[in-house]
Fold F-box domain-containing protein.
Amino acid sequence: MVANSSSLDLQRRAQGVGPQGPDAPAAPAPAPALPDVLCVLDMCALVALCQSLSERDLANARLACRALRNAVRQGVRQLTVSVSQSLAQNWRPGQRSPLSLFPWCEDVSISVDTNIWDTSRSSDGESSDDDEGEAGEGYGDSGYGHHHTARLALAGVSAQALGRIRRLTIVNDYDSRRGFDLEAVVCTFVPQLPGLEVLDANDVRQLEGMEAADRARPTMIYQALAQHCPRLR
């Protein structure tokens, strides 16, 4: 009988089963899986988690697994989106802005590159036979308007996500030949941002118009803000 009991204990141990009885040690609880941990975190914890990571870390986390991708999707509150003429020229049907990946984002910076590269010019800056030389070195007159280019920053973003944006910052890359059409860009954005509270355009350089004699553009900006952004401070 004792021999049989010993054999049974050895067999249980070999199978990973501990001894039975009231004095037997309790089996250790299994460690929680990462998806389970992320599921119990509230929004504040997810925001703190995302704020502690660099942009590269956030990008890598989104690629690691579905649970981390969902956590980053909910936790990112601040994002910079860059748009350019090159992006507009290579835009694909159905393509969406990176902002669409972060529907809880509240603070958005949009950088508009106004440069238009003229492919008809050679690499040494010389004009082609058809070039009249009016556009300036390396840049042509063709291309999308600033408000058309800027609109791509919101492409594919849901109305619910746009309604969560509280702060919008607009910046532009300096272009010595063309002024930045701030009025057109602002009037393009604000009808889509009903929850906007802060609009920052302090870093916009070389405005188109906006001189003392230009009263139309400021009027259109103020009218658009008053009509579409009742929460603006």
The two ends are 86 Å apart (CA to CA). The longest helix spans residues 2-14. Residues 31-76 form one domain. The chain has two domains: 31-76, 77-122+136-233.
